[in-house]
């Protein structure tokens, strides 16, 4: 009898987990293009979080309107920092679970991890900018020549 009960519980749990995963967005579907990211830097309603370490920002530079929350403290910051302390620390409102957040880093790897963390915490409009600082830096070197013909996508 216990064996049958355990089997039923495992089957139900498996079914429940498959439904949750089926409804969970694929983080790669949440990538933003360079043009969308560039537009976001001029939109105060979008929170851009750079998850590089502070020393990296000092060495390379900062993307306009972004705040720096290193990947290793991101989850704790989003879960444990009060809205008041978040505002005091970052001079931006703490995001709501439906706020649009775009994560960036050097090359898109850590920002993808950050997006997954945020999605797992319930921040349903978390996006990843896979071009990262490397693509942004190229834009700064090239001016707007290599990206001028594209228009922002439907993200905004």
From TrEMBL:
<feature type="domain" description="Rhodanese">
    <location>
        <begin position="42"/>
        <end position="145"/>
    </location>
</feature>
<dbReference type="InterPro" id="IPR001763">
    <property type="entry name" value="Rhodanese-like_dom"/>
</dbReference>
<feature type="signal peptide">
    <location>
        <begin position="1"/>
        <end position="22"/>
    </location>
</feature>
<keyword id="KW-0732">Signal</keyword>
<dbReference type="Pfam" id="PF00581">
    <property type="entry name" value="Rhodanese"/>
</dbReference>
<protein>
    <submittedName>
        <fullName>Rhodanese-like domain</fullName>
    </submittedName>
</protein>
<dbReference type="InterPro" id="IPR036873">
    <property type="entry name" value="Rhodanese-like_dom_sf"/>
</dbReference>
